[in-house]
Amino acid sequence: HGNLKCSHIVVAKDGTPKICHFELSKGSDVGALDRWKGPEYNLGIGIDPSTAGDVYALGLCIIEARTGDIPYGLDCDETVKQQLEECGCYPRPKGLRDDEWNVVERFVVHNPGNRPTMDQAIEMVEELAWNEALEEEKTGFDRVNTA
């Protein structure tokens, strides 16, 4: 896809998530910072689009969905780029449980070769969703739909 972000995910009437905006994934501005893309793109050292880049973006979508904040919040582009150059790691945001961060952290590692495949990523997200559903059933607390 190459352009995955929360604003490009819609949910069908049956609850199935759908990815849209495929036409935007072509011809992106090389060198322009995109907060949902991996360091390899933003530092100009990798290919785009790539499956590894989509896994990275999926991790950031999970963060955005859980926290309500866009990746890197209000940091200016130069600050984000400097952070990517210096450590390459995405800082753990507040609001993620340990099990969620353990998964997301694997999606947003600096080296795209160290990220899970998309099939593995989907399995990991499904397991998180299953565990959360079990927790909600056990406690009666729905943290997604609770304001």
Automatic annotation (TrEMBL):
PROSITE patterns noted in UniProt: PROTEIN_KINASE_DOM (PS50011)
Task: Return the Pfam families for the record.
Answer: PK_Tyr_Ser-Thr
SUPFAM superfamilies attached here?
A: Protein kinase-like (PK-like)
Kindly list the GO molecular function terms attached to this UniProt entry: ATP binding; protein kinase activity
Classification via Gene3D superfamilies: Transferase(Phosphotransferase) domain 1
| Domain named Protein kinase: residues | 1-134
Q: What is this protein called?
A: Protein kinase domain-containing protein
